[in-house]
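Sanity check

After download, print the first record. It should look like this:
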Amino acid sequence: MNYIVFEIGVAIALIALSGLLSAKLRFSVIPFYILVGMAVGPHSFSWWHIDLRFISSAPLIEFLGRIGVLFLLFYLGLEFSVGRLVKSGRSIVVGGTIYILINFTLGLLFGYVAGLPLLEMLVVAGITTISSSAIVAKVLVDLKRTANPETEMILGIIMFEDVFLAIYISVVSGLVLSGSTSIGGIALSALIALGFMLFVLIAGRKAVPLLNRLLNIRSNELFMLVIFAVLFIIAGFSETIHVAEAIGALLVGLVLAETEHMKRIEHLILPFRDFFGAIFFFSFGLTIDPLSLGGAVWLSLAAVALTLAGNFAAGMWAGRSAGLSPKASVNIGLTIVARGEFSIIMANLAKAGGLLPVIQPFAALYVLILAVIGPLLTKETKLIYGGLERVLGLFGWRRGKNLPEKAASQDH
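Expected C-alpha cells:
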C-alpha cells in the first residue's frame, strides 16, 4: 500500500529540519535543501512506513518542484518589473555586459575544452554564467551592505543577468526541447521564443490599465485564483512552443509588476514561493545519486576555479568603469559569485532535453560548492582585498585613486 501523503509529510519534515539547521548556522538554505535531497532517494532505505527512497511520491515531488520553479521566477519578475529594468540605465548596461561577456565566454571555452557537444556547451555556459539572485540578496542584507557604493552596481548586474537569462533560456530551450539540428530549424526556434517573449511583454504593458480594473477583486481567495490561472496558463502554453515554462512565469511577473496590485500579489505569493521553492531544491537533490558524483568532481572543481577568476576580473572591470574603489570592485566580484536556482533550472532543461547525464551531477556539485563558499568569500572581502593589495599591489591600483572621494569614504 502506498502512503503517499505520509511520504510527502516526511519529505517536508526533512526540508524543514535542514532549513532549521541552516538558520542555526546562519547559512544559505539552498545547499542544505539540496544535500538533504541527495542524502535520501532511491539509494536510501525504507523502515516501517518511513520510506526514504520516495519511490511512490517521487513523481509528485518532482511536479511540486516544477511549481516551485514557476513561483521563484514569477516572484523575481514581480521584483524587477520591465519599467524598473529600463530606468536602471547605465549600471545595468555597462556592468552587466562586462559580467556576462567575461563569464559566458569562459563558460563556452570551458565546455569546449571539456570536449562537450554544442548543446551541452550552451547549457554549461548558462550554468556557469548566472548568479543566484536569492543568495546575493540575502548576503547583502545579512552583511548590512545595502548602503555600500558598489551595491547599485551589484543590483544592476543581477537585473541584467535576469534579462539575459530570460532570453538565453528561451533560445536554448528552443534548441534543446525542439531537437532542431538544421540552421533554419534553430533560427526558427529562436525567433519563436524571442517573438513570444516580446509579444507577452508588449501586450502586457499595453494591457496594464485593463489589468488594474480586472484585478480589482476584494476577495483574496478569488484574487489568488485569477493570478494562479494566468500564471499556470501562460507558463504552460510557453512550454507547448518550446519555451521553458519558467520563462512564461517570469514574463507574467514582469507584466503584473507594472500594475497597481503588485504589492498585494507579492505579499500573497511569498508563502507559495518559499514552500514550493524549498521543494524544488529538495527534488533536485533527490535526483542525484551521491555515488555518481565522482565522475563530475574534477569538472566541477575546474568550473568553480574558472568562475572565481571570471567573477574577480568582471568585478574589477565593472567597478573601475563606474569609478568605484578597488575594494568596492572586489566586493562586486565576490558578492555575485554564488550560483543557485538558475543553474539548477539550466541543468533540469538539459535533463528534459535528454542531454549528457553528467550535466546533472556537475551542476549539483558546482552549485553546492559556490553556494557554500560564495557567502563566505563575500563576508571576508576585506581580508581578501588586504591580502591582494599586499601581495600584488592590486596591479598598481591603490585606494582612493580614480574614484570619487565619497565612494572611498563609504567603502567598508
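If your output differs, re-run the checksum step. Summary of this record's structure: Confidence is low (pLDDT under 50) at residues 398-412.
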